[in-house]
Design goal:
alpha/beta, Rossmann fold, 2 domains, about 55% helix, about 15% strand, DNA-binding, transcription regulation, CheY-like_superfamily, transcription, phosphoprotein
């Protein structure tokens, strides 16, 4: 039996994933978490084989949690799950140590296959991600400016471009408005932009929102 822990801050999403996994006789959802603190407890108590981890979480993001698990040499095998298309996050997640990447809008059958594949110690790569990896290997010089952004900087970019105020972003990310301002300044500097309007245009052109 493959033991799975789900980590997503949206209860409706967790329920949908859980219902899909419950259709399989060889997979058991042993716990659910809505953020870093509850996830730590779930991992400690249940020692799952596979973790389905949302990329965009309040507080510590999925990629930040993935980095912590990697540093601790956690044995859990992680599949990142996101609403963002593969071309925006998949390679970043795989480089950070994820065993697979799934789009929330994808085929439910891929979810079952991903869990079974990574439980065996193999990476789960969709055809879309395979193509991205191939293009990335053969054209490294085409890297986008936003590839240099940290996870928090990329989150800040997306949220500003979506029209959210710094106070709203601070609340969602569970950090201070001052810290959000620091991330914003770093994003503008790295991308060579001057203001939020230019930042929004950049995000739209690069399909980041």
């Amino acid at each position: 039996m493959i033991k799975v822990v789900l980590c997503d801050d949206h209860a409706v999403v967790r329920r949908g994933v859980r219902d899909t996994l419950m259709e399989a006789t060889d997979i058991q959802v042993v716990a659910e978490a809505d953020g870093y603190a509850s996830l730590r407890e779930a991992l400690r108590l249940h020692r799952p084989d596979v973790l389905l981890l949302d990329v965009d979480l309040p507080g510590r993001s999925g990629l930040e949690i993935l980095a912590v698990l990697h540093e601790e040499a956690s044995p859990v095998r992680t599949v990142m799950v996101s609403m963002y298309p593969e071309d925006q996050y998949a390679i970043r997640c795989l480089k950070a140590g994820a065993m697979g990447y799934l789009n929330k809008g994808g085929d439910p059958a891929d979810l079952l296959q991903a869990v079974r594949t990574v439980a065996q110690g193999r990476k789960f790569i969709t055809p879309q991600i395979a193509e991205l990896l191939a293009n990335h290997l053969h054209a490294p010089e085409s890297a986008e400016l936003h590839d240099s952004l940290s996870e928090r900087e990329l989150q800040t970019l997306r949220k500003i471009a979506s029209g959210k105020k710094l106070s709203q972003i601070a609340e969602e990310l569970m950090i201070s408005p001052k810290t959000v301002s620091v991330y914003r300044a770093r994003v503008l500097e790295k991308l060579g932009l001057s203001n939020n309007a230019e930042l929004t245009v950049y995000a739209i052109r690069n399909k980041l929102v």
